[in-house]
Structures are given as structure tokens and as C-alpha cells.
């Protein structure tokens, strides 16, 4: 009798593990790569002007025809200090910086094509505190400098607020990306997971009922 009980508990444990595995299938299909390391680091202050910006991901970014990875390095005035195009090196995205980057705060905005084919857009900041760097300046024959016309046509505070209200926030963009990722999971994954959970649930139900075979005796003395 004890052996039968042990067998039932073993089958129950195996069934529960199978159910959990099936429930995790859609989640695994949904997972994206993540940024694991950056140079300069997020929210860091560097004492030497960076010669490049390098981003490392948990998966290898995709590259090729029709696929575009971007990195933009922007100062507080709106000047862009990236030099050339982004290169994919293994799990890294990298881009050179223009010479003459002045001291100050910078925003690194990037767009990456993850290894699963989806795209992600994020940004972070760093501060250049290189004592040998100029206090101000604009990129020359490199990147993209803000022209005087751009400064004169800068939006008013009311226009800026209206623009911010109409522009999706990073959280909204993340939610939209999540919805796209969820709808991109193949239908068979959900169907297989659902059928598997139902089957396992049935097995668990039968085991919990403690059904007996016709040969089992209800008389404790027979044990």
C-alpha cells in the first residue's frame, strides 16, 4: 500500500512539473534580449572623453539588408556626436564619437534589432567631466550640429507640452512593443500549451481522487 501511495505522489509531482513547463512556453517565446553592459555606463560620470559608445546585449543583435541599428549621442544643445554608422560586433553595438566633445551631459538613444527579430528603443545618460575637454562646442564635419535656424525655431513651452502629450511615453512604447511581441507568438504555441495544461489537469484530478483498481480491497485487514 505504501508503494502505491509513493507512486501516486511521484506521478502527481511529475504532472505538476509538466504543467508548469507548459505554462512557461509562451513566456519563453515572449522574452527579449536585454542591455547587459554599456560604455560609458548608464548615469555615470567619465573623466576621459569616450572615443566610442558600446552597448552589449544578452543576445546577438541582427544586422543585414533591411535591418537598422542606431545610436544617437546628443548633448544638451541638441548637437549629435556620433561618427559614422553603428557596427555589430558579436553581442555588441558600437559607434565612434566625434572629436572635440565638450564637457556636459549627454543622452545615448539607441534602436536595436534583437536576436528574435523584434526591435527595441531605449536611452540613458552620462556626463563628460574630462578636464581636458572644451567647456562648449559643436561637432565639425561629423555628427550633426544644431544650426542657428534650428535654435530660432525652437518650440515654445506651450508647443512643447502639446507635443509631449501627443508623443507616446517610454512606458507606452514599451507596452506597445510588448503587445506586438505577444501577438507574434505562433498560435500553435498557445494551443499546445492549453491542451497540455488540460491533459495534465485531468491526470492530477484522477490522482487526487485516489481511484482504485477493481483488485484493490477496501478491508484494511487485507493490507
What does the model show?
There is one protein chain. The protein is of the alpha+beta class and 223 residues long. 37% of the residues lie in helices and 24% in strands. It contains five helices and eight strands, in the order H-E-E-E-E-E-E-E-E-H-H-H-H. A hairpin with a 2-residue loop joins strand 5 and strand 6. Helix 1 runs antiparallel to helix 5. About 18% of the residues have low confidence.
Distance between the termini: 7 Å
| Estimated radius of gyration | 29 Å
Number of strands: 8
Main sheet specs = 4 strands, antiparallel
What oligomeric state do these chains adopt? single chain
For the biggest β-sheet, the strand order reads: 1-3-6-5
Structural class: alpha+beta
What order do the SSEs take from the amino end to the carboxyl end, as H and E?
A: HEEEEEEEEHHHH
Helical amount among residues, as a percent range?
25-40%
Q: Output the number of helix runs.
A: 5
- The unreliable regions are 24-29, 153-186
Please state the average pLDDT score.
Answer: 75
> How would you describe the shape?
elongated
- Beta content: 15-25%
